[in-house]
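Supplementary notes for students who missed Thursday's class. We covered one full example, reproduced here. Read the sequence, then the structure, then the short commentary at the end.
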Amino acid sequence: MNNALLRAVTDWCSVFGVNSNSTHWKKVSNQDQNTAEAEIRNLILVKTQLSAAEWNTYWEKMCEFRNSYVSHREPDVRQPVPDMSYALTDACAYFEWLKEQLRPAQNEPKTLKEFYVDFQIEVLTVMRSYLPKGT
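Structure (token representation):
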């Protein structure tokens, strides 16, 4: 299993998993907690195009995968890897919400989608450098 994938699941669960995590998304705002939670939850649902029930099912799958395979390596785990595109979309939506809270900002970072595309280009460039000439 790809170590980057395992790390992505762990990091996603640190932010979106159990409410008791100190890094959980519900704990980072100084504004009214209910307002922040509603804004973030709505943004995630809009961006993922999932209903609340569908997102909760996804959340359960991610947390179960993290608990049974990523962190504890139970030997008989046979569940598939959750669809990581939703995890990326969740992270992008949350990052955009965080950036809005810090406006106006100097040297504002790119969006996570832009970082993702830049990283893909960088990886492909490195991979091509290892391929035989003419491939």
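Commentary. The first helix runs from residue 3 to 16. The chain has a mean pLDDT of 86. If anything here is unclear, bring it to office hours.
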